[in-house]
Design a protein that fits this description.
The chain is α/β, with parallel strands linked by helices. The chain starts with 7 loop residues before the first strand and ends with a strand. About 50% of the residues are buried. The chain binds threonylcarbamoyladenylate and magnesium ion (MG).
């Protein structure tokens, strides 16, 4: 059991534009504390990336396996030099196009980043967030190691409330910067091999990366379950993830087939919920309880609603959830990738 911390909640808004909250968060981080901070993707649980003890406290607060490496967040290009040992091919192109923003790039690690931050690897994940509060907190402190600010295995937090639910008493502070606009974690690409590899899809899409770099491979584990014991490029991919307590099943098919399947199941089971698209609403009828997570092709709406809806299903008492799967293209690939994990790879074609 970890000793209970006196967590403080800091408001990054108000008449001073959040200046006091930012200064206080920066001070806690410089002193080796842990602070949940807003970013444009999801909330991150931050600590000084170069301070092994501070980083160890992140793993403890989250209950995160020690071999799952963290992303180091920077606010400007000069900090990149402190974090990586060499600039791999393609780095310049990606940073110029996509930073600041929801793209994490795996590079060779600099010695001053301890192995606890990189999960024992000689590579390091780096991202320059675009969220003004995240950037201001990094400016007020140091490069920050920050995984998503949820308890390990749970859906990532997209509001300060989610962080409070998961981490109150386990971290030094939580900064409330409102709702995250992107809603899913950053795209992760590795530039450490022969060919760039997409390890985690996000708001920067595979299509955009291919346009920028030419050849980009899709990492094993993005669309499928990784084989037990297979060599894992991104250790985070092997763990159960994004899972509410309710039993999630991902259903692939058009609106008519999906809604017919849900209605059939609902006639036979209790505690069944639908997580559907706007286009499914009418066909579902009135009786079946549901959360609608956006239009079928409105991936931006889907990513924004996704994790909040997965968390809400528990509060609503859902026992089983039939989720209508998006097309795995563009930003839909990110939504699909998170959903197959929250479903524990329980996928039904209808
Ligand atoms: O949007 C985001 O990326 C958020 C915000 C807070 O920035 N952070 C986030 O961190 O999602 P986390 O720890 O939940 O996910 C990091 C992912 C994991 O799948 C991890 O295995 C992978 O990045 N990763 C980190 N360092 C790596 C490395 N050196 N090599 C391969 N994969 C790495
Ligand atoms: Mg995470």
């Amino acid at each position: 059991m970890m000793t209970e911390k006196q967590t403080i909640l800091l408001q990054a808004s108000g008449p001073d534009g959040g200046a006091e909250a930012i200064a206080r968060a920066g001070e806690i981080l410089r002193q080796g504390g842990t602070v949940a901070i807003p970013t444009e993707t999801v909330y991150g649980l931050a600590a000084d990336a170069a301070n092994a003890e501070a980083v160890a406290a992140i793993f403890e607060a989250k209950g995160r396996p020690a071999d799952n490496p963290l992303i180091v967040h920077i606010a400007h290009e000069e900090q990149l030099e402190q974090v990586i040992s060499r600039r791999p091919r393609g780095l310049e192109i990606l940073t110029r196009r996509f930073w600041p923003g929801p793209l994490t790039i795996i590079c060779p690690k600099a010695d001053r980043i301890p192995l606890v931050t990189s999960g024992g690897l000689d590579t390091v994940a780096v991202r320059m967030p675009s969220h003004p509060v995240a950037r201001a907190i990094i400016e007020a402190s140091v490069p920050l190691a920050a995984p998503s600010a949820n308890r390990s295995g749970y859906p990532s937090p997209t509001t300060a409330r989610h962080c409070v639910d998961d981490l109150w008493g386990r971290v030094d502070a939580i900064v409330d910067g409102g709702r995250c606009t992107v809603g899913v974690e950053s795209t992760v690409i590795s530039l450490c091999g022969e060919v760039p590899v997409l390890l985690r899809p996000g708001a920067v899409t595979l299509e955009q990366l291919r346009e920028a770099l030419g050849r980009v491979e899709l990492g094993k584990g993005v669309l499928e379950r990784l084989e037990e014991g297979s060599k894992v490029l991104s250790p985070g991919l092997k763990y159960k993830h994004y899972a509410p307590s309710a039993d999630v099943e991902l259903v692939r098919g058009d609106s008519a087939a999906y809604t017919a399947y849900v209605r059939d199941r609902a006639a036979k089971e209790t505690g069944l919920w639908a997580m559907c698209f706007t286009e499914d609403q009418e066909r579902l009828g009135e009786e079946i309880p549901r959360l609608c997570y956006g239009g079928m092709e409105d991936y931006a709406a889907q990513t924004e609603a996704l994790f909040d809806d997965l968390r809400r299903l528990d509060a609503l008492g859902a026992r089983r959830v039939l989720v209508h799967a998006p097309q795995p293209t563009g930003m839909g690939l990110a939504v699909y990738n998170r959903l197959i994990r929250s479903a524990g790879f329980h996928i039904t074609d209808v």
